[in-house]
Specification:
Distance between the termini: 61 Å
Radius of gyration: 21 Å
Strand content: under 5%
Oligomer: single chain
Structural class: mainly alpha
Number of strands: 0
Order of helices and strands: HHHHH
Largest sheet: none
Length: about 150
């Protein structure tokens, strides 16, 4: 999961724009997590609200987020929330041999770190976007003021 191959355009906004190539990276780890969680719930017959919420969130991320349209920030936020649920399960209820999801948690953490690095890389673009937006607003304000003064 090397971040060096990530190339952001000058107009990319991490918070509003999708990045399909990066969004596709999450599907395989999410599927592995979903399989592991289902295995724990069905095979080991654990009934836990944390497991049910984690199953729901994992399934939601896989099925409802469209990699062509979903901003990376939305994926990152959902993965952070899922990670908190999984860590609570791992710390409170999980047995290291029987019902642990430690490997899946580590993979999820690596994805979150990757997305955080992309977020940091995109800040320069975000600052440029904000500066351009402020310039456009200033020009519009000047035009409105000039129009008002002409009357």
């Amino acid at each position: 999961m090397n971040i060096s191959e990530v190339i952001l355009t000058n107009s990319y906004n991490f918070y509003h724009d999708s990045y399909p190539e990066e969004a596709r990276v999450i599907y395989e780890p999410m599927q592995n997590l979903l399989i592991r969680l289902r295995d724990i719930v069905i095979r080991d017959e654990y009934e836990s609200p944390l497991l049910n919420e984690s199953l729901f969130l994992t399934n939601y991320i896989i099925t409802c987020f469209n990699c062509q349209e979903t901003p990376l920030m939305k994926l990152l936020t959902s993965m952070d929330f899922l990670l908190s649920k999984l860590e609570e399960w791992e710390g409170t209820y999980a047995s290291k041999r029987l019902n642990s999801v430690e490997t899946e948690i580590n993979t999820l953490k690596m994805l979150i770190i990757r997305y955080r690095k992309i977020q940091i890389l995109s800040w320069r673009n975000l600052l440029s976007w904000r500066k351009d937006k402020m310039i456009r607003e200033d020009v519009m304000d000047c035009c409105r003021l000039a129009h008002t003064l002409e009357k």
